[in-house]
Amino acid sequence: MSTVDQIILLHDIDSKLFEINKLLGGLPTQVEELIQQEETLKNSLSEKENLLKTTTVDMQTSETLIATVEEKVNTLKDKLTDGSISTNKEYDAMMDSIDYEKNLVSEKETELLMLMETKDTLSSGIEEDKANLETLIEDLSTKKKALESKLAEVSEEKNALDVEHANIVKGIDSNVLSQYDAIYEARNGVAVAAVLDNNCEACGAFVPAQLVNETLAKQVVFCGNCGRFLYKLVFEN
């Protein structure tokens, strides 16, 4: 295999590796983002469920307190009629106590109504979130498997290309390889160009007939304008 053919093959491998590395750079990030999104949704649902538990406990506490205070009010009312009150002062004090307890019941009933509304909202939201989360988890699972499968597939291809790359560069003269690397870096990964109709395929510059003949002879030739390696495709009839 001529040096030019080796350079062309090396360039083809490098182009494939470039695309694979670009893809590999994104896939792990995508998988990680999907995992984090799933974890965030699970944490959000857990927080709502914990808040629902707290709200339920608060409701039970309020209901118990209301029942206790109402029982106390009834007891105080009974004292108004059972002869326990003998003076106006005691009567007024008793009425003040009853009014205080009634206000307390009213406040707790208002709080209880708010807690009930909160519970209903949380319960509805949790059920909706669970349904959405279940759908999302299935979707994320499918995407993660597809991405991970592609990642494994691409990684296998990359390993094979790396081995092929290493074998090819062994047969290329070190000076030519250094030139190739410099051009590859300077020309954004396009170090080789074909001669088409006596023009450089990459930059469009005219290629003199002498250089065209040299490319046909598989000699190492560079474009006088962009500096890329040149080669000429030969089509057989």
Explained architecture:
This protein is rod-shaped. A 4-stranded mixed β-sheet has the order 2-1-4-3. The protein is 77% helix and 5% strand. The protein contains 4 helices and 4 strands, in the order H-H-H-E-E-H-E-E. It has 2 domains: 27-172, Helix Hairpins, CATH 1.10.287; 175-231, no CATH class. It has 237 residues and is mainly alpha-helical.
Order of helices and strands: HHHEEHEE
- Biggest β-sheet: count, sense, barrel? 4 strands, mixed
Structural class: mainly alpha
Q: End-to-end distance, in Å?
A: 22 Å
Descriptive keywords:
237 residues, Helix Hairpins, mainly alpha, 5% strand, 4-stranded mixed sheet, 4 strands, 2 domains, 4 helices
Write the layout of secondary structure elements.
Blueprint: H1 3-81, H2 88-170, H3 174-186, E1 192-196, E2 199-200, H4 209-216, E3 221-222, E4 229-231
Helix pairs in contact: 1-2
Provide a concise account of the structure shown.
By secondary structure, the protein is mainly alpha-helical. Helices cover 77% and strands 5% of the residues. The chain has 2 domains: 27-172, Helix Hairpins (Orthogonal Bundle), CATH 1.10.287.1490; 175-231, no CATH class.
